[in-house]
Design brief:
This protein is of the alpha+beta class. Helices cover about 50% and strands about 20% of the residues. Helix 4 (about 80-100) crosses helix 7 (about 145-165), helix 8 packs across helix 21 and helix 11 crosses helix 15.
């Protein structure tokens, strides 16, 4: 409740997260380069160069690889779909930045500096470190000027989009109508026809398997692989042997007690007399007088506070609950409201308290005291945190030494490891896309690991920062080039694959035949499963396509039958036997649905805005160039 009174910290946190996670955004002015590499697109004559596109593609591929834990085929990351999506993002950003500048949106240097100083990745000992800031940018090949321009552009785009986050009004009748549709339930039974039922009935000749092998040779090609020695420099590897004294633990505990428990929470109720942003002085004075009158009534008869709130409050989120806002922590509400609540005694009524939304009469309902866990319970976590902090400081001191030792004594990783108390470890086989790597990777490290020089000369790679505060150096000790697996080795695998394909097709044909018979009203005896009640929110395991078809069934024609291909093969028939209408939509559910629908409407409005901006621009895209690179392997 009372969401519109809460401060705007969440927006800043979202912006910071978007900056920190990728750490490199698309469409940076500093990276635009014209010249012999050509352009992949033009937006109102402004080129998106191949250099810029390649940089954005590499960053997106790295994010996808990290999000999927490295378990993704390299060909997927270089697919036309991924490349088209990256290009679309670049075009969209170029359009929106141009529009933002036309509207006069700008980010002041002081605001930009404040945002960057809040990014935790640049902090050391809890504070912004200029040395760490410059170090991390160097590791990514960025200058402060280029990075700051990226952040400035991202903030401009967030400012352009922010009005749409508050748009989206939906009428109450529409909310109730859509809520009833969404909360309707249906009783469903199912019968599955699986490929396993047909596997024994299909066969594959060796000649067929041989033809498949010849036409799908790429599928049976072993990827290039290496075994490597590696050393990881990180707070974890440095901190393993560090000692923490009892005095350090106690000092940290005393300084951070608030982190080891639950903070105090307070429950309050309020009556809002709303004042519009453009209200005149007379209107504001009238609103204040009304709030003072309500304050006097509430203080005279405290037991009527909820009644007064229901009758007079302009806050739709809490009015029906008698103004109750529930429990919240210090710093949750806007400053003046927050200071008032946390300066009151239980049962006290205070006001009028002015905020950007108007005047509030506040009643403190409850104080829930905070708790602190004893030192014995949190000692281990404190020690780990102190080790991490010490290791972080140590890493900043030795990162350059590590890089130099790896480079200067390039025939072995042992000198660097011994100098810093690290371990040289051995991997199993690692593929070119990073699959099998026991350490974090990124594109730079994989490129270095599989370079001809590293493989041929068995030299150390340079120390590469693969994640913030994690540097890795490797040395190849064994190499397997890509090779075709012989037919005899994969014959059984091919036969099994073809049998399953044919069994799956047979199961699906049988499912379609049964569905047609049922739709005609034929009596077909099938072992239906016990019925379950499904809804759009709780599908009970029904795949999205099947659920959609189940809710398309006309309620007047039951039982009704639908069917869908099973995600793992075969076909599933569904019998809809009953429709259960939604119960009465109460205030809290109506409010939740209104919020969701409003958000969807806001998204559609933003999409329409973007399409409008796009329709007025001249966009030229060299799709042949983009797709041609994809086919060539990027």
């Amino acid at each position: 409740m009372f969401d519109f009174v809460r401060n705007r910290k969440r927006i800043v946190q979202i912006i910071l997260a978007l900056i920190i996670i990728p750490f490199a955004l698309w469409g940076v002015e500093s990276y635009r380069m014209s010249g012999d590499r050509g352009s992949v697109a033009e937006v109102d004559g402004d080129p998106i160069t191949r250099q810029e596109f390649d940089e954005a593609l590499r960053e997106q591929q790295a994010r996808l690889r990290e999000a999927l834990g490295g378990q993704v085929d390299a060909s997927v990351l270089a697919s036309p779909q991924v490349r088209e999506a990256v290009l679309e993002q670049l075009v969209e950003q170029r359009l929106l930045l141009a529009h933002a500048r036309k509207l006069g949106i700008a980010i002041a240097d002081a605001q930009l500096a404040g945002v960057i100083r809040e990014i935790e990745a640049f902090h050391q000992d809890g504070r912004f470190s200029q040395q760490r800031y410059e170090f991390l940018l160097r590791q990514r090949g960025l200058t402060p000027v280029a990075f700051e321009e990226r952040v400035r552009q991202e903030l401009m785009l967030r400012q352009l989009a922010e009005p749409f986050t508050h748009a989206g009004f939906v009428t109450r009748p529409l909310v109730e109508h859509l809520a009833r549709i969404a909360e309707q339930k249906r009783e469903v039974s199912q019968y599955a026809i699986t490929p396993e039922q047909y596997l024994s009935k299909v066969s594959v000749e060796e000649a067929e398997a041989k033809r498949y092998y010849e036409t799908h040779a790429q599928e049976f090609r072993l990827p290039e692989q290496v075994k490597v020695e590696y050393v990881v420099l990180s707070p974890d590897t440095l901190g393993a042997g560090m000692q923490i004294s009892e005095e350090e633990v106690k000092a940290y505990y005393e300084a951070h007690k608030a982190e080891f428990g639950t903070p105090e929470e307070r429950a309050a109720s309020h009556i809002l007399v709303k004042v519009g942003a453009g209200a005149s002085a007379e209107e504001r004075a009238a609103a204040r007088r009304k709030a003072e009158d309500l304050l006097a009534q509430a203080q005279k008869e405290p037991g009527r506070f909820a009644e007064l709130a229901k009758k007079h409050s302009d806050d739709p989120g809490s009015r029906d609950q008698g103004g109750a806002l529930g429990l919240f922590q210090r710093g949750t509400m806007v400053k003046s409201f927050d200071e008032a609540v946390f300066g009151m005694k239980p049962g006290e009524i205070r006001g009028p308290v002015e905020t950007e939304f108007g005047y509030h009469v506040i009643k403190l309902d409850e104080i829930k005291a905070g708790t602190v866990r004893p030192l014995a319970e949190v000692r281990s976590s404190i020690e780990q945190e102190l080790k991490r902090q010490k290791a972080g400081r140590r890493l900043a001191e030795v990162a350059e030494q590590f890089s130099n030792l790896v480079y200067e004594q390039s025939d072995s990783l042992k000198p660097a490891a011994q100098a810093l108390g690290l371990q040289v470890q051995m991997s199993e086989w690692i593929q070119r896309d990073g699959t099998g790597a026991p350490f974090p990777t990124n594109d730079r490290l994989l490129e270095a690991m599989f370079s001809a020089q590293t493989i041929k000369e068995r030299r150390n790679t340079e120390a590469i920062e693969v994640r913030p505060n994690i540097l890795v150096a490797v040395r190849v000790v064994e190499h397997k080039p890509a090779a075709d697996r012989p037919f005899d080795e994969v014959k059984d695998e091919i036969v099994e694959r073809l049998k399953r394909e044919r069994a799956t097709e047979a199961a699906r044909q049988q499912g379609q035949n049964l569905l047609e018979r049922l739709a005609k009203g034929e009596a077909v005896e099938l072992p239906w499963s016990p019925p379950v009640t499904v809804s759009r929110q709780d599908p009970h395991g029904l795949p999205p396509a099947a659920l959609r078809d189940v809710f398309r069934v006309i309620p007047a024609r039951l039982p009704a039958y639908v069917g869908a291909e099973a995600p793992d093969g075969g076909f599933v028939l569904y019998r809809v036997s009953k429709v259960i209408e939604a119960a009465e939509i109460d205030a809290s559910r109506r409010q939740a649905w209104a919020a969701q629908l409003g958000q969807l409407l806001a998204q559609e409005e933003y999409k329409a805005f973007l399409e409008s901006v796009r329709s007025r621009a001249e966009i030229k895209i060299n799709r042949a160039l983009v797709q041609g690179e994809a086919q060539a392997g990027g």
